[in-house]
Design brief:
This protein has helices at about 15-25, 30-35, 45-55, 70-80, 90-105, 120-145, 155-165, 170-175; strands spanning about 5-10, 30, 35-40, 40-45, 60-65, 80-85, 150-155. The protein is α/β, with parallel strands linked by helices and about 180 residues long. It starts with a strand and ends with a helix.
Length: about 180
């Protein structure tokens, strides 16, 4: 695992998993939200975002968390591992609520500078409908992707077990 894409619904813990994997594997982490958002929640232009993304994708090692569906094919073409956090909507909403309670009004390390944590109805609606709108297409994409290790984790317990297996060297031993 040298170039890892982490996708899934908001609140599933993509950024947290990316940071944890980055520490364990000593691989730099790229949070797509940091590339996209400018201070004050101002969006970056597509051209600027695409240039930043291309620079990151050209590097030999990275862990990228975030959906940004338009760029998933490009990221998958360069990755060797995809981790899909396929959590229930309730688990994701619980994750969002926990995040809001613990970080509201502050800038998380995985967000752009000057973008304090906030919540709005549109985001909650997006989380609620994420699996209905994206799960089928995500599995289709994963099934059509050859030559890439695909890991689907269905809940936080599975994430903890996955990280434990990495700590114990079991995961890499199974792949070799």
């Amino acid at each position: 695992m040298e170039r890892i894409v982490i996708i899934g619904c908001g609140g599933a813990g993509k950024s947290t998993l990316a940071r944890q994997l980055g520490e364990k594997l000593n691989i730099p982490v790229v949070h797509l939200d940091k590339l996209w958002w400018k201070p004050g929640w101002v969006e970056t232009s597509r051209e600027e975002f695409d240039a930043k993304l291309a620079d990151e994708l050209a590097k030999p090692q990275w862990i990228m968390d975030g959906n940004f569906n338009r760029t998933i094919p490009e990221r998958i073409a360069r990755c060797d591992t995809i981790i899909y956090l396929d959590f229930s909507r309730f688990a994701c909403l619980r994750g969002v609520c926990k995040r809001i309670i613990t970080t509201y009004g502050t800038v998380r390390p995985d967000m752009g500078e000057g973008c304090p944590e906030r919540i709005d109805f549109d985001f909650l609606k997006w989380v609620w409908n994420f699996n209905k709108k994206h799960r089928e297409n995500t599995y289709r994409l994963l099934n059509e992707t050859a030559g890439v290790e695909t890991i689907v984790l269905k809940n936080r317990r599975a994430v903890k077990l996955f990280l434990k297996r990495i700590d114990e060297g079991e995961y890499n031993a199974e792949r070799n």
